[in-house]
Structures are given as structure tokens and as C-alpha cells.
């Protein structure tokens, strides 16, 4: 099983979309193993988005992401990094298909409501930035036998 980091951004939190986003991951069959509601510092966000530091929007993104609370989560499942990216849709909601989170719930690239790790390596790094080992819960959902062979 893979793990990925997913965060509902400040715009998604303000719009009350945390539950709707969680529901989509739960309905897909993924398992939530850690979650926290937190307002991160701008320094934390600069570290989180370090791979984008040379992009012109980096400073504004970090400032925005630290402007309000985010709902940070770790989800587990087979091929979850790839599948979560598909569920989220394109970074620009205008390019996202109906049925995706961004395609259904947002319209502006600067307010695209959700962050998800783009690679397994980045997922591991991001999870380590947001969660300590003792914050994870281990359990077997009763539906697991109906999701995986």
C-alpha cells in the first residue's frame, strides 16, 4: 500500500468542503491514517513547496497557504498517488474534467481547493513535514476484503 499527502487548502476550508473531499476518498476505498486541522506558518509552507521555489508564484502561494487553516491528511491505498491526482483533476480547474474534485468544485487556478502529492517520493517528504510517527492510526477497515484481492 502507498501513502499520499492531501491537504484541503484555505479556500476549501473556508467553503466548508473538507467533508465532501474526505467523502470522495472514502468512497473510492482509500483509508485515512492521519489527519489534522492546522494553520501552518509561511516558513512551513516555503519548506513544503520547496520544489517550486524558482516559480514566479512561489511567494504568493506560500503566503496564501499560510493565510488560514488547512486540513492535512494522509491517505493509504494501492496506487494512491496516481489515483488521488486523477481524482483531484488538473491544477487549473478550467482544464479539469467534470467528476474530478477541481472540475466539480472550483473555477480559479489560484483557489483550486486541494493539494496532493505528485510523486511517491514527494508524498513521503510531505508526510514527514506534516506528521510525526505517533500521529498515525493503524487499523483494518471491515470493507477491505471487498476492495482488494
TrEMBL record:
Entries under InterPro entries matching the protein: NDK-like_dom (IPR034907), NDK-like_dom_sf (IPR036850), Nucleoside_diP_kinase (IPR001564)
Keyword annotations of the record: ATP-binding, Cell cycle, Cell projection, Cytoplasm, Kinase, Magnesium, Metal-binding, Nucleotide-binding, Nucleus, Phosphoprotein, Transferase
An annotated GO BP: UTP biosynthetic process
Enzyme Commission code(s) on record: 2.7.4.6
Cellular component terms per the entry's GO annotation: cytoplasm; lamellipodium; nucleus; ruffle
Cofactor(s) the protein needs: Mg(2+)
Annotated catalytic residues: 115 (pros-phosphohistidine intermediate)
UniProt cross-references to HAMAP family, sorted A to Z: NDP_kinase (MF_00451)
Family recorded in the similarity comment: Belongs to the NDK family.
Annotated protein name in UniProt: Nucleoside diphosphate kinase B
Gene that encodes it: LOC117734669
